[in-house]
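anyone seen this seq b4? input:
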Amino acid sequence: MDIVGPLSKTTRSGKKYILVVVDFATRYPEAVALSSIEADTVADALLTIFSRVGFPKEVLTDQGSNFMSALLRSLWQKCGVQHNWASAYHPQSNGLVERFNGTLKMMLKTFMNQHPQDWDKYLPHLLFAYREVPQESTGFSPFELLYGRRVRGPLDLMRDEWEGKAAPEGESVVEYVLTFRERLAELMGLARENLARAQRRQKVWYDRTARARAFATGDQVMVLIPVRRNKLQAAWEGPFKVIKQLNEVNYVVELSNRAHHRRVYHVNMMKPYYDRGNVVLAVCGHWEGQGDDPLVDLFPGTKAGSPLEAIPLSEQLTPGQHAEIRGVLHLYRQLFSNQPGRTNLTVHRVETGSHAPIRCSPFRVTGKTAQDLEREVRDMLAL
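predicted toks r here
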């Protein structure tokens, strides 16, 4: 079950929300127009539905305050209903009702153009149209799976009138009940086969990009949370601490030190947090020895040449090999110098493709930093 709204058009009776309940077995939907989504209003609407179809064994909702209130928890407990809830900001957990919500919104959007303030009166007609259409996963209409027969819609009534079909002769109650049970068992068997086939197809499609992830208690994680000002945008926030693991895909995450700031998140909304430590940006410069110069010389010794005798050689070499290597070093002293040089033997190019150059606007720097930068440019030009 879920709540749709608030809708853009409010009816004359003040209805602007819709309570949606969908049966997992048959895909049969129920919808009740509401003027508010307070817990007592939602409870009254649920009782009107349960009085016709009976109380369920399990219900699945999101973690909205209207479903998680003390009143609804008391209702579930008194009626022997197990309450399951979807992880935060992960509508795939309750994808069946979310998919129906999208279909219902499209139907209402088209219908509201003609009846902007009376859509609550015509809501049963929209539900009737949805219930008689075969569902893709099961292969049957929700009405047929619930009642064991095809519903007679407006088109069926017109066809019977055109064809002049007479009403069939009545049958006994026992015959009807036995036929109904056989028909229903046959429909449910076929529906299970179609549903299993659809689930296998959807699993293959989902597993193409899915990756297994797991977190342990105490791990630091980042959580993908929608932005408050725009629910269509989301950002990674954290780090937060994992309190415990509920099952393979759901974790309880502590959003702050307060006990009531804990929520259940799906693993798809989480990623591990890595502490990168301190990041230091260094700029080349000379050490003056006076004051606190924040610039660091990244190339020490490139200005003054060091003697070749200071180059360390392996101690495993014999004295003759040492002398031979020293001779080679003196012969090619320019190659072994610690100062950058030039060559005309090769050319290095950086291919940037069709990407345009990055333009950076000029900005002012302090006098001390400007002197260091000018000195660095002069040294590079000299080298």
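The longest strand covers residues 230-245. The radius of gyration is 37 Å. kinda curious what u guys think
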